[in-house]
Amino acid sequence: MTGSAKIKLQQALILLLDEEQFSCITVSKICKNAGVHRSTFYTYYDNQFDLLEDAYDYLTQLFKTEFEHYQVEYDLSQEKDLISNAYLLPYLTFVKDHQKIYKIYLEHQNDFHHKERFDSLVFHIFTPRYQAHGIIDSKRITYMSSFFMAGILQVIWGWLRNDCAEPIEEIADIIQTCIPKRRNNG
């Protein structure tokens, strides 16, 4: 039950977040919904924030798995444009589907291991795309990725504060408009 209990706790928290605010979710509620005893919770976690971090990691891993599926489905292995609909629409759909946990994450970024997640995104998503454009300097890729993510996160944060009222396609268009396209000289 060891590994499965942690997953049950993570899934229970995610489901509870769809019903109520994080600040109202108690350890007792989480344990009841997960079908585990309080002692099991405290075997793995000190508090709800620790569980929230694991739940966010769980969602991140889920997204990476789904994203790999999208890459196969849409043949994105050769896609070089990070702001194409092929990338943005699946990502924005995932954010909208899990908006409560994204809001909590963005409100409490300092409580999470943000650097490790960012480094993982740079390695798995950004580096191959930048290298496809001939950019191979790792420091340059990190700076460019930071700039790119900061802008997108600001747009997404505004969208989340508005309860994702605007259509996903509109948000994708806004992001695409903010990033200038490379001109072909000739």
From TrEMBL:
Keyword DNA-binding among record annotations: yes
InterPro entries reported in the protein's UniProt record: Homeodomain-like_sf, HTH-type_Tx_Regulator, HTH_TetR, TetR_C_Firmicutes
Keyword DNA-binding: yes
Pfam family, any one: TetR_C_8
A GO MF term: DNA binding
Domain HTH tetR-type: 3-63
DNA-binding positions: 26-45
Keywords from the named record: DNA-binding
PANTHER family: ACREF/ENVCD OPERON REPRESSOR-RELATED, ACREF_ENVCD OPERON REPRESSOR-RELATED
The name this protein goes by in its record: TetR/AcrR family transcriptional regulator
